[in-house]
Amino acid sequence: MTLKLHNVSKQFGGFTAVDQLSLEIPEKQIFGFLGANGAGKTTTFRMILGLIEESGGEITWNNGMIGYGQSHLIGYLPEERGLYPKMKVVDQLVYLARLRGMNRSDALRELEFWLEKFKVPDYKKRKVEDLSKGNQQKIQFISAVLHKPKLLILDEPFSGLDPVNVEMLKEAVVELKNAGTSIVFSSHRMEHVEELCENLCILHHGKPVLHGGLKEIKRSFGKKNVRVSADFDLDYLKEIPGVTKFKRYGDSCELQVENEKVSQVIFKEITGKGFVRTFDLEEPSLNDIFIEKVGASYE
Amino acid sequence: MNKFLIMVVQTFKSRVKSKSFVISTVITLALILLLTNIQSIMEAFESGEEDGNNTTEISVVSEEEGWIPLFEEQLSSAGPFEVEQGQSIEEAREEVEAGELDSALEIEKDDAGMPAATEYVGEQSVPSTSETIQQALQQVKMNVAADQAEVDQAAIEAINSPAAYETVALGEEAHTPEEMQQTQGLVYVMLFLLYLTVMMYGSMIATEVATEKSSRVMEILISSVSPVSQMFAKITGIALLGLLQFSLILGAGYIGILQNGGEGSLLDSFGLSDIQLDVIGYGIVFFILGYFLYATLAATLGSLVSRLEDAQQMIAPMIYLIIIAFFISVFGLNAPDTSFITITSYIPFFSPLIMFLRVGMLDIPAWEIALSIGVLAGSIILLALIGARIYKGGVLMYGKSSSIKDIKQAIQLSKKEN
After folding, report:
1. SS3 A187
2. What is the ipTM of this complex?
3. Which of A166, B35, B160, B392 has the greatest number of C-beta atoms within 10 Å?
4. Do A82 and B217 touch (CB under 8 A)?
5. What pLDDT digit, counting tens, does each position of B36-53 carry?
6. Nearest CA to CA, how far is A155 from chain B (Å)?
7. Rounded-to-integer distance, Cα A157 and Cα A128, Å
8. Closest chain B residue to A12 measured between Cα atoms?
9. How far apart (Å, rounded) are the C-alpha atoms in residues A188 and A79?
10. Could you tell me if B17 lies within 8 Å of chain A, comparing CB atoms?
11. What are phi and psi of A172, to 5 degrees?
């Protein structure tokens, strides 16, 4: 049940939203799409779902096209949340699940389970418009997963939620993955992607800037972070060749270095100069990589 | 249950349960029961008031005593009049001024020996009453004149009775004027019904689509079910709603008529007993086709707006179309065989009304009807195909304006770039 995108492009008039995107999204894993606003994440999802047709290229799932015949296997949480405001939660969820091919009694049973899980069982008979934004989002999430999809597409699932609810939803996503669901989700919050995804793709202006496993991406990025705090002035360290970034916070500083060797040079430089409280070599965060990859191409 | 039916039922149920539907239906039903019972209600009010208030009391003073019985006879056959006599004209005038009498009539003999009258009325005189009195006096005068000329009574009756007149229609399918009139009535009712349906339910469909779009639930829907079946599920759901509403109204009207002493079948009570069944059959066919054509247009237009408030403005073109079609057909009722009507009966948005009008009023060959139905069915399919495209693209498009440009953009969104 692998989802494959091959040279997929989308133009709107003269504007290219997605450009030659080729991806393979393995099954039973969580795949993250990263990108600034307007990078083409939502457009890509809509193409995967068949809501808009690709201008070029091909999208296959399980070696076939995705059509309305598979809609019972697919769950979708759109970026623009939307439910019937005047409809009761239970009616709404049952209706949407039935449109995804579920029967009424199964839908009702699953519904109890999820409402219980999200600690909102008493919202069952409430109208959606009476719920808070965050709770509406939980209901919307339930509507995407109620029918036990094999492929779940979540467009910015955690935006606009408080930390407690973000944790709750993250847990649910991981549980779904463990139960065998393939999940694709987008975010512009790096830490969510870093925490959840095995594989990811960074999109920038519709082009994939980076793509692959999280570990490989970090390794191949090469650059590392060095954190030093010492009693003496550290400013001269930015003159060392191979140091690409330098930031000072009080008596400590953070450096980005081209590779591990440079960090050894720094280590030698500071030994003997005085008392060093911290010397720490870190893997780059996804945030660093993102800023580097996306920010760099702005110039 | 299949997804199409799930959506039809959902559309129907949510509308039937909505407050606006319940309230408007209850008000309409109440209004119909009120209208059908208006006679008994008015009578109930009147019986509470003083007696004789609706009979006109009139005092007659005549120079020639013999005219009064004749006058009274004429007047009482024309309406509820109470004729008093024996007063002097002064007394009668005073009573009129005091409001005790409705009017006082003084009949004199003119030079030729004919009756000539002066009516004295109060402040609340009714022109139609004076007219009735004048006509009664005219009859008296004719009788007096006939007497003077010594004309035979039988001759007078012969003069007054209307001439015998009968129309015989020639040809197998020709219609007598009465039949024509009845057909015209039926055609008019059908035309008006379609007009009303498009106005009411067309905007309901557009609002329905616009609501789903503005609440953004649409994106989930079109990822579950194809836009074409969504669109037709909406259209069918609203059609069922309309059917329910119309049958309630019709039923209420029928019950109202039965209660007030009407009898016979449903058609009889609406004065449609002798109508040819084929006219009704064609009426139903054109009604259904017309509904689907306009409903598809409404759904398409509804999918283009992003806010509910814009829906009414967006369907304005549809409203204009149906108004124009309705006016052309009203004109056509009186001149169904003009070439203007013939031509417009093939134009898709006009044909449901105008072709039906021609079918009902004229004797037209079957191929013309078939052609018009074909054109209509073809344009429904075409519109549904275009509509589904626009619908699919339109629901993903959220902008402030709503124009031709949007339609183009929506179609572009839903197709491959070349």
Report:
1. strand
2. 0.79
3. B392
4. yes
5. 777 777 777 766 554 445
6. 12
7. 18
8. B413
9. 12
10. no
11. -60, -40
| Cβ–Cβ under 8 Å, residues A257 and A226 | yes
Report for A130-144, A220-234, B170-184: range of highest mean pLDDT = A130-144
Phi first, then psi: what are they for A286, rounded to 5°? Answer: -60, -30
Q: In what helix (H) or strand (E) does residue A276 lie, and over which residues does it extend?
A: strand A276-282
Query: Considering only CA atoms, which of B406, B214, B235 is closest in space to residue B310?
Result: B214
CA atoms within 13 A on the CB side of B191: 29
**A287: Cβ–Cβ under 8 A, 6 or more apart, which residues?**
A190, A191
End-to-end CA distance of chain B: 39
Express as a percent the part of chain B with pLDDT over 90.
6
- Report the 3 state secondary structure along chain B: CCHHHHHHHHHHHHHHHCHHHHHHHHHHHHHHHHHHCHHHHHHHHHHHCCCCCCCEEEEEEECCCCHHHHHHHHHHHHCCEEEEECCCHHHHHHHHHCCCCCEEEEEEECCCCCEEEEEEECCCCCHHHHHHHHHHHHHHHHHHHHHHCCCCHHHHHHHHCCCCCCCCCCCCCCCCHHHHHHHHHHHHHHHHHHHHHHHHHHHHHHHHHHHHHHCCCHHHHHHHCCHHHHHHHHHHHHHHHHHHHHHHHHHHHHHHHHHCCCCCCHHHHCCCCCCCHHHHHHHHHHHHHHHHHHHHHHHHHHCCCCCHHHHHHHCHHHHHHHHHHHHHHHHHHHCCCCHHHHHHCCCCCCHHHHHHHHHHHCCCCHHHHHHHHHHHHHHHHHHHHHHHHHHHHHCCCCCCCCCHHHHHHHHHHCCCCC
3-class DSSP assignment, residue A76: strand
Query: Which residue in B14, B219, B224 is closest to A99 by CB distance?
Result: B224
| Cβ-based neighbour number of residue A63 at 10 Å | 8
Tell me if B235 sits within 8 A of B299, measured CB to CB: yes
- Please state whether A222 falls in left (phi above 0), alpha (psi between -120 and 50) or beta: left
pLDDT above 70 for A299: no
Kind and range of the H or E run holding A201: strand A199-204
Question: Residues A235-275: pLDDT tens digits?
Answer: 888 888 888 888 888 888 888 888 888 888 888 888 888 88
pTM score, two decimals? 0.73
Cβ(B295)–Cβ(B203) under 8 Å? Answer: no
User: Which of B219, B225, B409 has the most A C-beta neighbours within 10 Å, making it the best mutation to test the interface with A?
Assistant: B219
Contacts of A74 in chain B (CB under 8 A): 223
Instruction: End-to-end CA distance of chain A: give it in Å, rounded.
Output: 40
The answer to whether B104 touches B81, Cβ cutoff 8 Å, is: no
User: How many CA atoms, within 13 angstroms, populate the side-chain half-sphere of residue A196?
Assistant: 33
Q: Give the whole-angstrom CA distance, residue A46 versus residue B265.
A: 57
Nearest CA to B198 among B330, B50, B299? B299
Residue B113, judged by CB atoms within 10 A of its CB (0-12, 13-18, 19+), counts as exposed
B245 class by beta-carbon count within 10 Å (0-12 exposed, 13-18 middle, 19+ buried): buried
Q: Which two tokens stand for residue B159?
A: 């003069």
The CA distance from A4 to B27, in Å, is 58
**Angstroms from B219 CA to nearest CA on chain A:** 7
Amino acid type, A239: E
- Is B3–A12 a contact, with Cβ atoms under 8 angstroms apart? no
Tokens at residue B298, please?
């409404």
SS3 A218: helix
